[in-house]
Amino acid sequence: MDERLHFLLVLTITNIGMGGVMAALLLRWDHRLRLPHGAVILLGLALGPFVASLLLYYQLLLLPGRSAPAVLLTTLVIAAGAGLLAGRGWTALGGRIRAVPALLRDDVWMRWFAAGTLLMLGIAAVVLATKPLVDHDVLEYAVRGRWFLDTLEVTYERHPFDARNGFYYVGLHGHSFPLLFTWDGLWQRITGATGDLWPRSITLWYAWLLIALTWSVLRQWDRALAFVGVLNMVVPFGFALLLVIHHLDSYRITLFTAMVLLVLVLRERPELPLVLLFGAVLGAQAFIHSTGAILGGVLWVLWLVMHPGTLRTRMRHAGASAVLALAFGGVHYVLDTMIGTRWIFKDIIWF
Fold first, then answer.
1. pTM above 0.90, yes or no
2. What percent of the residues of the chain are helix, what percent strand, and what percent coil, each to the nearest 5?
């Protein structure tokens, strides 16, 4: 299969398909969550590739050595099951999608937003599609992803070293981003394609989601404020760099931002459905990068301190969110600390 067709296939299955499943699943519980539909859909789209990496992680950890078709089929079956559970969430999602043309026609600020983001992302896409994967430590993540692809297993060891290429993995961060390279490689074994266009697109996918999420939240107050807010976010040089370098920053920052927004909602409405969603997003953004694990843990503690409920309610919410955080990737740091590289503690205590 041609590399570009392969890219479109993986994009459709992962970003749109699995992202749509997550969006519909969240909308299915809208009567419990009571969150703005636009932000919920964007969160679902952000969780699409992440869930692919999470399902891949558990399969390679618990059922190592299975073939690429078996791993992919298992993932798709689970995603399809989640799609069936979404039920009426698909109706809500379809309604929001059908409303987009009218929104663009009637809202001048939305047209400015769409035109601006398309121009910006179009320029960045040309840069990233032709740029070598050498920015910052993205090459390390890519090589780690190839390691998982070659072995089809996730293991924990004190000194992860690949003698074939001399690669030593320092083991500081979660496996979500490397597993996205593995995910693309598994599909390449089916399609026969080569290249890395889909992993390259992750930077832009999440950069756009971050911009759109900011727009969606600010738009709740004022459309002009949303435009000005997004403009102030994208104009600084640092954000421009975020768009034209291969890295996981847009990936982790998008889910970290969603987690912070959920904490703000929880401050006003400490309800169990929101607590469960917060726990899942907390674990997700932690599984991407150690910064998310550390800051997420601090934010979790602060949220419990500020929790307006009784001690019993706090403990129940703490336990529920912690279980979800571990299930959605936080368990990696527990395993890495106990039986792996010792995570950040190897730099604090040399043992």
1. yes
2. 80, 0, 20
The pLDDT-based confidence of 42 (bands split at 50, 70, 90) is very high
* pLDDT tens digits, one per residue of 214-224: 888 888 887 77
Range of the domain at 133: 3-348
Q: Are the CB atoms for 74 and 152 separated by under 8 Å?
A: no
Residue 85's CB: how many other CB atoms inside 10 A? 12
pLDDT digit string, tens, across residues 276-332: 999 999 999 999 999 999 999 999 999 999 898 889 999 999 999 999 999 999 999
Domain count, the chain: 1
Residues 6+ apart with CB under 8 A from 296: 256, 259, 282, 285, 286, 325
Report DSSP letters for 22-42, one per residue.
Answer: HHHHHHHTHHHH---HHHHHH
Contact (Cβ atoms closer than 8 angstroms) between residue 195 and residue 3: yes
Query: Among candidates 349, 281, 279, 285, which has minimal Cα distance to 316?
Result: 279
